[in-house]
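Sample intake sheet
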Amino acid sequence: MLGKNLPLSNFVHDPSFTNSYFLGIPQLGTWGDLHVDTLVLAWMCMGTVLLGAAIVTPSLTSDSAGGKGQAIAESIHGFIEDLCKGQMGHHYKTFFPLIASIFLFVLTANFIGVLLPGKAFEGQAWWPRVDGEPFELCSPTTDFNVTFGLALLALIIYVGSGFVVHKANYLKLYLNPIEWMDLIIRPATLALRLMMVITADELMRAAAIVMVPVILPTGVMAFEMFIGIIQAFVFALLTSIYIGLTVSHH
């Protein structure tokens, strides 16, 4: 995220846990640290998606056009369904819930950094702090832990789907060294693109607020929301393409 994250080691003081190592790398406090602010905001994003679904579901009807909630839900469903169908063919129904979940989570995570006035709160005396560091309100997708986790999930799904569809024959694909490179390049580009673009948006808004705090930030926020939609679409699209290439490979 943009500032200094709140590491989990600030909250957990058990040395047997905070001093743990994995492959020689300390898990809490330095590289690979778990950030509490990121976790909380990611949970908020997931809760927002689930709450929205819970609110819309009772009003869904097959007998009439329904209300605004149904219209929005059907638009999102149709958009993601067309995306999946275009990239995966008849396999799309299996992966539709995954792609829809990724799109909605990334979209909500991108928006939450725009809509929550975090920087206005973090300087206040009443704002929660741990070891002098304020709880940071930014998009969870500015934290590499989140974007890498999403990219790793996409990697596991599209490689696993290859073995499910093609069985042991799928191993033949990896006789080509280029395919081994793809196992690194694809998730790396997914994770880094999302993180860097959203981080740049957050920095641009922060700079706009400092330079012209009255009018300019409104336009910047609108631009950020547009970029947030595009980045959620790109992440879902690329994941769909990778899965589609895997399940259709001969």
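Comment: The longest helix spans residues 177-211. The chain has a mean pLDDT of 79.
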